[in-house]
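hey so i finaly got around to running the thing on DUF304 domain-containing protein from Fodinibius salipaludis. pasting the sequence first so u can double check i didnt mess up the copy paste, my clipboard has been acting weird all day
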Amino acid sequence: MADQTSDKTITLQPSWKNHLIGYIVSVLLIPLFGIGLVGLYWVYKRQKKHSYTFTDTQISSRDDKYQRNIDLVNIENVLVQQGWLQKKVSVGDIKLETTATSMTLQGIADPFVLKNMLEKAISAQKERQNKKQETKPEQPDRDPGTMERMDYLTGLWQQGLVSNDDFDKEKKHFE
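ok and heres what it spat out for the C-alpha coordinates, dont ask me to read them lol
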Protein backbone atom coordinates (compact mmCIF):
# COMPACT_ATOMS: atom_id res chain seq x y z
CA MET A 1 0.00 0.00 0.00
CA ALA A 2 1.60 3.27 -1.10
CA ASP A 3 0.68 6.69 0.22
CA GLN A 4 2.35 9.60 -1.50
CA THR A 5 2.21 12.50 0.96
CA SER A 6 4.39 14.96 -0.98
CA ASP A 7 6.51 15.09 -4.08
CA LYS A 8 9.61 13.72 -2.37
CA THR A 9 8.20 11.50 0.39
CA ILE A 10 6.69 8.04 -0.07
CA THR A 11 5.24 5.92 2.72
CA LEU A 12 4.82 2.14 2.39
CA GLN A 13 3.32 -0.48 4.65
CA PRO A 14 3.77 -4.25 4.52
CA SER A 15 1.51 -5.95 2.00
CA TRP A 16 -1.45 -7.96 3.25
CA LYS A 17 -0.06 -10.83 1.14
CA ASN A 18 2.84 -11.09 3.60
CA HIS A 19 0.28 -12.11 6.27
CA LEU A 20 -1.73 -14.37 3.98
CA ILE A 21 -1.40 -17.48 6.15
CA GLY A 22 -2.57 -15.56 9.23
CA TYR A 23 -5.62 -14.30 7.39
CA ILE A 24 -6.47 -17.77 6.03
CA VAL A 25 -6.12 -19.45 9.42
CA SER A 26 -8.19 -16.70 11.06
CA VAL A 27 -10.99 -17.07 8.51
CA LEU A 28 -11.00 -20.85 9.00
CA LEU A 29 -11.25 -20.39 12.79
CA ILE A 30 -14.29 -18.07 12.67
CA PRO A 31 -16.79 -20.96 13.11
CA LEU A 32 -14.90 -22.07 16.24
CA PHE A 33 -16.52 -19.73 18.79
CA GLY A 34 -15.47 -16.63 16.83
CA ILE A 35 -11.79 -17.12 17.63
CA GLY A 36 -11.05 -16.30 14.01
CA LEU A 37 -12.39 -12.76 14.46
CA VAL A 38 -9.82 -12.13 17.16
CA GLY A 39 -7.21 -13.67 14.86
CA LEU A 40 -8.25 -11.41 11.97
CA TYR A 41 -7.97 -8.36 14.20
CA TRP A 42 -4.57 -9.46 15.51
CA VAL A 43 -3.19 -10.12 11.98
CA TYR A 44 -4.55 -6.79 10.72
CA LYS A 45 -2.95 -4.87 13.62
CA ARG A 46 0.33 -6.69 13.06
CA GLN A 47 0.27 -5.76 9.36
CA LYS A 48 -0.45 -2.07 10.11
CA LYS A 49 2.17 -1.94 12.87
CA HIS A 50 5.04 -1.05 10.53
CA SER A 51 5.43 1.80 8.05
CA TYR A 52 8.39 2.81 5.94
CA THR A 53 8.99 6.37 4.75
CA PHE A 54 11.32 7.13 1.87
CA THR A 55 12.72 10.60 1.13
CA ASP A 56 15.48 11.86 -1.14
CA THR A 57 18.02 11.57 1.66
CA GLN A 58 16.90 8.84 4.08
CA ILE A 59 14.67 5.87 4.86
CA SER A 60 12.68 5.67 8.10
CA SER A 61 11.20 2.54 9.64
CA ARG A 62 8.48 3.12 12.21
CA ASP A 63 6.50 0.76 14.39
CA ASP A 64 4.29 1.48 17.39
CA LYS A 65 7.27 2.09 19.69
CA TYR A 66 10.38 3.00 17.69
CA GLN A 67 11.56 4.86 14.64
CA ARG A 68 14.86 4.13 12.90
CA ASN A 69 16.44 6.26 10.18
CA ILE A 70 19.16 5.38 7.70
CA ASP A 71 20.71 7.95 5.36
CA LEU A 72 20.85 6.78 1.75
CA VAL A 73 24.55 7.63 1.42
CA ASN A 74 25.37 5.18 4.24
CA ILE A 75 23.66 2.19 2.60
CA GLU A 76 26.23 -0.19 1.16
CA ASN A 77 24.09 -3.17 0.16
CA VAL A 78 20.44 -3.81 -0.71
CA LEU A 79 19.28 -7.45 -0.52
CA VAL A 80 15.91 -9.09 -1.22
CA GLN A 81 14.94 -12.06 0.93
CA GLN A 82 11.93 -14.22 0.03
CA GLY A 83 10.49 -17.42 1.34
CA TRP A 84 8.67 -19.93 -0.85
CA LEU A 85 5.21 -18.47 -0.24
CA GLN A 86 6.51 -14.91 -0.55
CA LYS A 87 7.86 -15.73 -4.02
CA LYS A 88 4.46 -17.11 -5.05
CA VAL A 89 2.60 -13.95 -3.99
CA SER A 90 5.36 -11.53 -5.14
CA VAL A 91 6.24 -10.20 -1.70
CA GLY A 92 9.59 -10.05 0.05
CA ASP A 93 11.77 -8.48 2.71
CA ILE A 94 14.35 -5.88 1.73
CA LYS A 95 17.47 -5.77 3.88
CA LEU A 96 19.46 -2.51 3.88
CA GLU A 97 23.02 -2.88 5.14
CA THR A 98 25.36 -0.14 6.35
CA THR A 99 28.75 -0.44 8.01
CA ALA A 100 27.19 -0.01 11.45
CA THR A 101 23.74 -1.57 11.23
CA SER A 102 21.07 -3.06 9.03
CA MET A 103 17.35 -2.47 8.56
CA THR A 104 14.80 -4.93 7.18
CA LEU A 105 11.71 -3.69 5.39
CA GLN A 106 9.26 -6.56 5.86
CA GLY A 107 6.50 -7.66 3.52
CA ILE A 108 7.12 -5.28 0.62
CA ALA A 109 5.11 -5.95 -2.55
CA ASP A 110 7.25 -6.28 -5.70
CA PRO A 111 10.52 -6.13 -3.76
CA PHE A 112 12.80 -6.29 -6.80
CA VAL A 113 11.19 -3.18 -8.29
CA LEU A 114 11.71 -1.30 -5.03
CA LYS A 115 15.27 -2.62 -4.78
CA ASN A 116 16.11 -1.20 -8.21
CA MET A 117 14.53 2.14 -7.31
CA LEU A 118 16.45 2.24 -4.03
CA GLU A 119 19.74 1.48 -5.74
CA LYS A 120 19.16 4.33 -8.20
CA ALA A 121 18.24 6.70 -5.38
CA ILE A 122 21.30 5.67 -3.37
CA SER A 123 23.68 6.25 -6.28
CA ALA A 124 22.02 9.60 -7.08
CA GLN A 125 22.34 10.73 -3.45
CA LYS A 126 25.99 9.65 -3.34
CA GLU A 127 26.67 11.63 -6.55
CA ARG A 128 24.99 14.71 -5.04
CA GLN A 129 27.08 14.30 -1.91
CA ASN A 130 30.30 13.98 -3.94
CA LYS A 131 29.46 17.06 -6.02
CA LYS A 132 28.71 18.99 -2.85
CA GLN A 133 32.09 18.01 -1.40
CA GLU A 134 33.93 18.78 -4.63
CA THR A 135 32.34 22.20 -5.00
CA LYS A 136 34.46 24.57 -2.96
CA PRO A 137 33.48 28.15 -2.34
CA GLU A 138 35.10 30.65 -4.66
CA GLN A 139 38.06 32.40 -3.14
CA PRO A 140 37.68 36.18 -3.20
CA ASP A 141 40.15 38.15 -5.30
CA ARG A 142 40.90 40.40 -2.35
CA ASP A 143 41.55 39.89 1.32
CA PRO A 144 38.48 39.77 3.54
CA GLY A 145 37.39 43.26 4.48
CA THR A 146 39.07 44.92 1.51
CA MET A 147 35.80 46.06 -0.03
CA GLU A 148 34.62 47.50 3.29
CA ARG A 149 37.84 49.48 3.70
CA MET A 150 37.59 50.69 0.09
CA ASP A 151 33.99 51.79 0.71
CA TYR A 152 35.11 53.63 3.85
CA LEU A 153 37.88 55.41 1.96
CA THR A 154 35.47 56.33 -0.84
CA GLY A 155 33.05 57.77 1.74
CA LEU A 156 35.80 59.89 3.27
CA TRP A 157 36.80 61.14 -0.20
CA GLN A 158 33.18 61.96 -1.13
CA GLN A 159 32.76 63.95 2.08
CA GLY A 160 35.87 65.94 1.24
CA LEU A 161 37.83 64.65 4.24
CA VAL A 162 40.50 63.07 1.98
CA SER A 163 42.14 64.89 -0.95
CA ASN A 164 42.13 63.49 -4.50
CA ASP A 165 45.87 62.76 -4.33
CA ASP A 166 45.57 60.92 -0.99
CA PHE A 167 42.54 58.99 -2.29
CA ASP A 168 44.41 57.86 -5.45
CA LYS A 169 47.49 56.90 -3.41
CA GLU A 170 45.45 54.86 -0.87
CA LYS A 171 43.30 53.28 -3.61
CA LYS A 172 46.43 51.69 -5.12
CA HIS A 173 46.83 49.61 -1.96
CA PHE A 174 43.47 47.94 -2.63
CA GLU A 175 44.06 47.01 -6.27
